[in-house]
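Protocol step 4 of 5: obtain the predicted structure for the target chain.
Materials: sequence only (see below). No template structures provided, no constraints applied. The aim of this step is simply to have a reference model before the mutagenesis design in step 5. Sequence pasted as it appears in the construct record:
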Amino acid sequence: MALGDQHTNPALTRDILTVSELNQAVARLLEESFDVSWVRGEVSNFTPAASGHWYFTLKDNGASVRAVMFRIRAAAVGFVPKSGDQIELKGRVTLYEARGEYQIQAEQMRRAGLGSLFEAFLALKNKLTQEGLFEAQNKRDIAKHPRAIGVITSLSAAALRDVLTALERRAPHVPVFIYPAMVQGADSALQLRQALALANERQEVDTLLLVRGGGSIEDLWSFNDEALARDISASLIPVVSGVGHETDFTIADFVADLRAPTPTAAAELVCAARVELSERVRRAQDQLTVAMQRKIDRHSQRVDRLAASLVSPAQRLSHQSERLSGLVFRLRAAAQRSEQQRHNASDRAIARLRGVLPELSAARVSVERAAASLDSGFRRLHALRLAKLASLAAQCRALSPEQTLIRGYAIVRTQLGNVVRSSREVNQSDTLEVSFAAGSADVEVLSLKHPQDGA
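Step 4 output (structure tokens):
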């Protein structure tokens, strides 16, 4: 058998895999064999890619493994690790098929030894994210030229000195109000909230700086307080956070209207440098001077053109006087024509009216006779109506219940006031009320006699 036949014989090649097929099979095996796990180690060769993905090696004293954390997961970490950091990450074991190297695909990351705090940080961050407290549309605009700046921090903090130094250098003309509060310890979150509430109550500043220096996650924990985060979100005054170093992140940073990497950077972000403002004023003054000179030149040319076409006052008055005389003459002539037209129209109307007026004397006599006849008829009708009314009144009196009672009749009612018309409407032993022409009596039914059927 030839060599070429051996390579094409399916019976001989059915168990031969390509490298890609082999790596794919190993990748499936790794992913199916290992659950998502937490791994602790030291970061080395940390490389943040332009895409936002993180590539690094996780190692300990005896071994190392490559790791990757994609951009969406990295954005939720809250800090940027660096080589030498001890971390704990949660991830899946996968195979990078292009090189045949296994790696950890990280889903969560926290600093080593701070698992519970970091878990609490992530839980609160996710909760407030879902509520929309970090949304950009909820951020307030920072005043470009504040009338005053407030600082919330400890009086003994180095961050306060940094902020005051930066503000003195950049904007010595802007007043600074300090709202002291502890920035570390059991009561620090409450004091920070009280200082924020005091600033909102006084309304004496346009911008608030919430600052402190760097530290561990425990040192910065008061800035991860949920109540403080909600107070910052509800603040009437825009809040700029400058907590820790550039790689430190707290909940206050996410909910603040602007986050600065350091306290000094926060001070520089909230006010323009006085030198820059002076330069802008100087440039604006130069532009205004040029614009005003151009406007003066344009108006000077216009004045010259108007002066050349100016008519003397005497000549203008003469022209106006002639025009006025002509208008007066035309007005008088129009008034005379209008008056004459009104007289002519009035005469014609009177003549037409006289021609259509009816003869009223005969009609007046007829109306007077009709009025006399109407008055006579009304009197006769009134007398007849009065007589009929008297007759009806007499009949009513004769047929009234009172007259009937006077003739010896009586009205029988039940205790409910219903008139009894038949013995079938009452029962034996019922109490009835009998009304006479004068007075009434209560009687008891001893026996009943019903009329015969059909009677």
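Step 4 remarks: Residues 423 and 451 are 8 Å apart (CA to CA). Residues 313-356 form the longest helix (44 residues).
Proceed to step 5.
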